[in-house]
């Protein structure tokens, strides 16, 4: 709850609160409607409702007055009196609170047609004057049932506290007004929660269950494992500290929004009290065999409560085990009975039926209720889950389903073990379908809560597979990590490490997102705008007019178009498309469409931004009797436009390059380290024959050059991010690969990856010389020569790499750089782009350096890895790599064989990379956009834990405050691999293909479907195909379809014989 400073609610940071007006309006309207609809049965026929909130208190207490404050206004307003009438709403409060409440006047008037009147009580006043005025206003309210005075509804059970409320109570009782209790009305009003309330309950429940699973249980197991003497009260204090600071235990919720519902409860040693009001004693935790330990934790988030209770069994006997199994089944039956339309009593009856059926002797020990409603109050009156409550369940209700057996006796003669009780509690939300158990993160089945110890105190293995990773690696119990042979399994160790990585990743992401904010970019510099394209600087430069025909000026890159008797020049870059066509009368048409700002798919250039408000020419069409001239003009415009666009594109690419330092040649310092006869990728381009070159290592960089003077590339050492050496083993090439920080130009290509390689064997094998024997001496000799050549090339590369490493290690360079070599034994097959490739990890990267485009992913750039489509029935799975720079697209590697799953997990874990698993592919673009739009909310909702299948801090609802982090969604099952494949495919098309596609697209742009249909019809008419009716075309299509189906159907019939 908020503190009060000078009478005004403030948060922990000292910032003033603001009232959420849309929520206030919506709930005020619901309040008045509920009051009107249930005035007699729930609101005591009240004409006026009075709610007085007492001063703040250090004690944990749940008051309906405080609950109404929070529900309606968002915060608790201590020492405030609210009076709700049909036409007026009165507030008696201090000046600071009055200034905060001013904003509700307009919404109240618009929503319920009630005027808000605020009576300010000064510090030196007792409020008596304001109270008298409000009482006079109450007497003037409309009366019902012809009464002399209106009926005033108040909360009868709340005793007045503080001077203001005591004066109010005395004057109200002495006023002669009829009083009635409105507690039932408020309880029913709060019973069904809206989406925002459910979000708060889910967050509170997640924190509660997380603390129970990942803090309480490890602490208890650590005490048992180390045989410490720790009291119940000490465990209570440690747990309360963990709840008060969620980020310390890995839950990304703000500490000021979190509180406890009650002091955590720890009970053992034969003394048990199953009430929430129970306390943790100063007795030490008793864990000798057999023993029972009860732990209960309740947390609040934004004042909304949740609860969880678990019973842990230590080497229990048959009586205790049977009782727990019966309690577990009864508890589940009660939860499943929480369905809209059922009676509240049905929940308790469902649990009682199970106990009567399975263990009738335990019926007298069963608690008298199965829990209560939960929300702003820990125990909502009117929603007790007992056998007498006939109220109906509604969607949106939340319950603390708490069931237990008390005062049971075991077979042990030790009093501390003989007397025992059992308790289970969960926070459950009633939904339209199956109810939602919000605290399911904390397991309760027998295999997760029962532990066995032998007589010597040495832990044996749990009865079954035990629980998963806990919150802190240091608190792991030996009992939870034993495999069948008594050793810690690799899977358990990996889970431990991943749990630790999850906490570190959330903290790291929080620092990066919240601290840096939107400043975190991709490191690319801003693209400079292209220079203005000018064809003619003055009219005098125009060529002399000839005929009034379209002309193409190749030298000035312009086209001259006759418009109203004048030749008007246009720079060719302003042309979007140009096309020609011919009609049946032998007339030729040329159509030129220009780039016009504001049309779809047209980029904004500098000229359009400068010349706003001017009129643009969108398109022109001309008719000609000379088809040859039209064809020549169209071809000239296309050729000229293609050349200009290619030049400007290269200029724009070069404008984004980071200026490199100048290469310092070795000269007299040392002899350059050379490696000869290398090929380069990407190549220099051009139509000339490609030549091999030499790679030289100089003082501050590499230089690769061929015998041609213009084929030279300089790579500075400071620009190298990663260097790789991959010798040929099963590949055809040995290579050196450099992944750079900033792009460089290789020929006319902009790239961050440069590779130098040598082919270690012939790429073409002669198969025309007939069949050769495996024992052919010539064949054996040829294979030996290939092996010798491969070994020789690998050795030359290795020597070159060693010498360069020595150079980089010299003090004057101070380079933290070294050639990395892929680890083939960790490699796996996958599809990073279009084709399957063998992807290999290195010590710092994940690479694929054989097929183009190359794949180089730095482990330091990876945020998390999500393994998608992971399942027992799947032969393949996909890997989605999310980068720390959320502006980068997620990298997908598809179709990885399932046999590689364990190896990939082990490698990721070894490299301290956090990974998750999911059954379906996720749509990552909207996910990353949501994170970047509101990083603070992403951190508050648990970060990446929404990928955790076990449940995380989020909400499945799609409200503004919904927390999507902890519940995986199946709403986007489609993979984006097809989109990614299509995008990557477009990136690797050849220049010729691009030109052809551009020409083809230019022919079709600008034509409507009607025009195309008309042209096709004219073409058919000229060919004499009018008789080719639609029915005939359909018959031909069906015939072709039948032939196409014949093969597969016959094959299928043959296969069926072998079944």
UniProtKB/TrEMBL annotation:
Residues of the Histone chaperone RTT106/FACT complex subunit SPT16-like middle domain: 828-918
Query: The organism sits in which domain of life?
Result: Eukaryota
Q: Per the record, which residues fall in region Disordered?
A: 770-789, 948-1059
Q: A single GO molecular function, which one? A: hydrolase activity
State whether keyword Coiled coil applies.
yes
Domain FACT complex subunit SPT16 N-terminal lobe spans what residues?
Answer: 19-186
**Where is the protein situated, by its record's location annotation?**
Nucleus; Chromosome
Instruction: Name the residue ranges with Basic and acidic residues bias.
Output: 1004-1026
Quick one: a GO cellular component term? FACT complex
What SUPFAM superfamilies does this protein map onto? Creatinase/aminopeptidase
Biological processes per GO annotation: DNA repair; DNA replication
Q: Which residues form the FACT complex subunit SPT16 middle domain?
A: 550-704
Keyword DNA repair assigned: yes
Q: Which UniProt keywords apply?
A: Chromosome, Coiled coil, DNA damage, DNA repair, DNA replication, Hydrolase, Nucleus, Transcription, Transcription regulation
Q: Where is the composition biased (Acidic residues)?
A: 969-1003
Assembly and partners are described as: Component of the FACT complex, a stable heterodimer of SPT16 and SSRP.
Cross-referenced PANTHER family, in alphabetical order?
CDC68 RELATED, FACT COMPLEX SUBUNIT SPT16
Q: Can you tell me which family this protein belongs to? A: Belongs to the peptidase M24 family. SPT16 subfamily.
Q: What does this protein do?
A: Component of the FACT complex, a general chromatin factor that acts to reorganize nucleosomes. The FACT complex is involved in multiple processes that require DNA as a template such as mRNA elongation, DNA replication and DNA repair. During transcription elongation the FACT complex acts as a histone chaperone that both destabilizes and restores nucleosomal structure.
What's the protein called, per UniProt? FACT complex subunit
Q: Which organism is it from?
A: Salvia divinorum
């Amino acid at each position: 709850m908020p503190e009060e400073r000078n009478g005004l609610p403030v948060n922990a940071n000292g910032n003033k609160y603001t009232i959420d007006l849309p929520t206030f309006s919506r709930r005020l309207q619901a309040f008045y409607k509920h009051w009107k609809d249930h005035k007699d049965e729930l609101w005591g026929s009240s004409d006026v409702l009075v709610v007085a909130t007492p001063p703040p208190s250090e004690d944990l207490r749940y008051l309906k007055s405080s609950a109404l404050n929070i529900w309606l206004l968002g915060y608790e307003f201590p020492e405030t009196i609210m009076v709700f009438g049909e036409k007026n709403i009165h507030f008696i409060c201090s000046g600071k609170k009055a200034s905060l409440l001013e904003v509700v006047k307009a919404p109240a008037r618009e929503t319920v047609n009630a005027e808000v009147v605020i009576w300010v009580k000064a510090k030196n006043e007792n409020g008596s004057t304001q109270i008298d005025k409000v009482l006079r206003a109450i007497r003037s309210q409309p009366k019902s049932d012809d009464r002399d005075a209106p009926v005033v509804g108040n909360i009868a059970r709340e005793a007045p506290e503080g001077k203001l409320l005591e004066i109010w109570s005395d004057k109200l009782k002495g006023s002669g007004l009829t009083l009635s209790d409105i507690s039932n009305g408020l309880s029913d009003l709060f019973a069904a929660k809206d989406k925002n309330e459910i979000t708060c309950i889910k967050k509170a429940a997640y924190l509660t269950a997380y603390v129970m699973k990942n803090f309480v249980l490890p602490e208890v197991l650590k005490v048992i494992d180390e045989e410490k003497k720790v009291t119940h009260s000490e465990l209570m204090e440690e747990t309360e500290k963990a709840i008060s600071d969620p980020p310390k235990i890995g839950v990304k919720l703000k500490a000021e929004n979190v509180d406890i519902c009650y002091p955590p409860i720890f009970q053992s040693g034969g003394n048990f009290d199953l009430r929430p009001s129970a306390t943790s004693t100063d007795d030490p935790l008793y864990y000798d065999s057999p023993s029972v330990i009860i732990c209960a934790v309740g947390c609040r988030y934004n004042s909304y409560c949740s609860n969880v209770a678990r019973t842990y069994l230590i080497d229990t006997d048959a009586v205790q085990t049977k009782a727990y199994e019966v309690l577990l089944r009864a508890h589940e039956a009660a939860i499943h009975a929480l369905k809209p339309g059922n009676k509240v009593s049905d929940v308790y009856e469902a649990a009682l039926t199970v106990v009567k059926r399975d263990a009738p002797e335990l019926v007298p020990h069963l608690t008298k209720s199965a829990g209560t409603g939960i929300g702003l109050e820990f125990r909502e009156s009117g929603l007790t889950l007992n056998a007498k409550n006939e109220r109906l369940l509604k969607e949106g209700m939340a319950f603390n389903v708490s069931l237990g057996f008390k005062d049971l006796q075991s077979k042990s003669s030790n009093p501390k073990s003989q007397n025992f009780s059992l308790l289970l509690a969960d926070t459950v939300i009633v939904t339209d379908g199956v109810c939602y158990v919000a605290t399911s993160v904390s397991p309760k089945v027998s295999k997760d809560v029962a532990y066995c110890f032998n007589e010597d105190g040495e832990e044996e293995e749990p009865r079954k597979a035990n629980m998963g990773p806990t919150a802190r690696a240091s608190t792991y119990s030996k009992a939870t990590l034993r495999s069948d042979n008594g050793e810690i399994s690799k899977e358990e160790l990996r889970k431990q490490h991943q749990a630790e990585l999850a906490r570190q990743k959330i903290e790291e992401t929080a620092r990066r997102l919240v601290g840096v904010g939107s400043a975190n970019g991709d490191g690319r510099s801003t693209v400079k705008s292209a220079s203005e394209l000018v064809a003619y600087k003055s009219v005098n430069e125009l060529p002399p007019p000839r005929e009034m025909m379209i002309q193409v000026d190749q030298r000035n890159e312009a086209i001259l178009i006759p418009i109203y008797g004048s030749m008007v020049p246009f720079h060719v870059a302003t042309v979007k498309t140009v096309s020609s066509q011919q009609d049946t009368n032998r007339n030729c048409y040329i159509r030129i469409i220009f780039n016009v700002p504001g049309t779809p798919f047209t980029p904004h250039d500098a000229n359009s931004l400068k010349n706003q408000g001017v009129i643009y020419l969108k398109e022109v069409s001309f008719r000609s009797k000379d088809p040859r001239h039209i064809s020549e003009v169209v071809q000239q415009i296309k050729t000229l436009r293609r050349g200009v666009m290619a030049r400007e594109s290269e200029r724009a690419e070069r404008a984004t390059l980071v200026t490199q330092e100048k290469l310092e040649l070795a000269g007299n310092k040392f002899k350059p380290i050379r490696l000869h006869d290398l090929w380069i990728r990407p190549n220099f381009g051009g139509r000339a024959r490609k030549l091999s070159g030499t790679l030289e290592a100089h003082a501050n960089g590499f230089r690769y050059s061929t015998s041609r003077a213009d084929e030279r590339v300089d790579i500075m050492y400071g620009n190298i991010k990663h260097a790789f050496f991959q010798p040929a083993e099963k590949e055809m090439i040995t290579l050196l690969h450099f992944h750079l920080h900033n792009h460089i130009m290789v020929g006319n290509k902009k790239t961050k990856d440069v590779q130098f390689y040598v082919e270690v064997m012939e790429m073409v094998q002669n198969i025309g010389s007939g069949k050769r024997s495996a024992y052919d001496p010539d064949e054996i000799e040829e294979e030996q020569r290939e092996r010798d050549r491969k070994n020789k090339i690998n050795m030359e590369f290795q020597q070159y790499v060693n010498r360069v490493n020595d150079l980089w290690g010299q003090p004057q360079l101070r380079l933290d750089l070294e050639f990395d070599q892929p680890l083939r034994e960790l490699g796996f097959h996958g599809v990073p782009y279009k084709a399957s490739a063998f992807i290999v990890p290195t010590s710092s990267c994940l690479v694929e350096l054989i097929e183009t485009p190359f794949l180089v992913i730095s482990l330091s750039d990876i945020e998390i890895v999500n393994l998608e489509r992971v399942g027992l029935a799947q032969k393949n799975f996909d890997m989605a790599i999310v980068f720390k720079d959320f502006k980068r697209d997620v990298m997908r590697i598809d179709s990885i064989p399932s046999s590689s799953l364990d190896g990939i997990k082990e490698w990721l874990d070894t490299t301290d990379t956090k990974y998750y698993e999911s059954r379906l592919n996720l749509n990552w673009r909207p996910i990353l956009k949501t994170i970047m739009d509101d990083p603070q909310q992403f951190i508050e909702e648990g970060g990446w834990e929404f990928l955790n299948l076990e449940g995380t801090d989020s909400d499945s609802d799609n409200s503004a405050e919904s927390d999507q982090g902890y519940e995986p969604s199946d709403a986007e099952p489609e993979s984006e691999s097809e989109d990614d494949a299509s995008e990557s495919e477009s990136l690797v098309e050849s220049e010729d293909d691009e030109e052809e596609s551009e020409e083809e697209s230019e022919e079709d742009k600008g034509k409507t479907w009607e025009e195309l249909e008309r042209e096709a019809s004219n073409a058919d008419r000229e060919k004499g195909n009018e008789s080719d009716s639609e029915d005939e075309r359909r018959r031909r299509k069906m015939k072709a379809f039948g032939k196409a189906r014949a093969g597969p159907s016959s094959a299928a019939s043959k296969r069926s014989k072998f079944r």
